[in-house]
Amino acid sequence: MGALHGLLGFSQSDEHPNEYTLRPEPLHLKQIHAKIPVKEGYITIHLNTQGKNTVTIPKGCTVTIIPQSGKALKLKETGEYTF
Question: Is 54 exposed, middle or buried (0-12, 13-18, 19+ CB in 10 A)?
């Protein structure tokens, strides 16, 4: 739970149960690879502090990513995204 809520900053919307938010905080880690089970399937995230970051979202959900530096990205379509 600490990694899910702390390192990944994962939360689910109270108003819309198919909407999720990720606020990754890798702290001292160079990489994080995680697969988060949600009712629509799995959200897969790969964080690399010195390279590209990717997230894959399943059909039927919306994921908002709020990176440490940069603006929020709201993803509604199934697929893999780089941020």
Answer: middle
Q: Within 13 A of 59's CA, how many CA atoms are on the CB side?
A: 0
| Distance (Å, whole) CA 65 – CA 63 | 6
Pull the structure tokens for residue 71: 């603006």
What's the pLDDT tens digit per position in 1-58? 556 767 899 999 999 999 999 999 888 889 999 999 999 999 999 999 888 899 999 9
What residues are paired with 73 via a beta bridge?
65
Going by pLDDT thresholds of 50, 70 and 90, the confidence category of residue 61 is very high
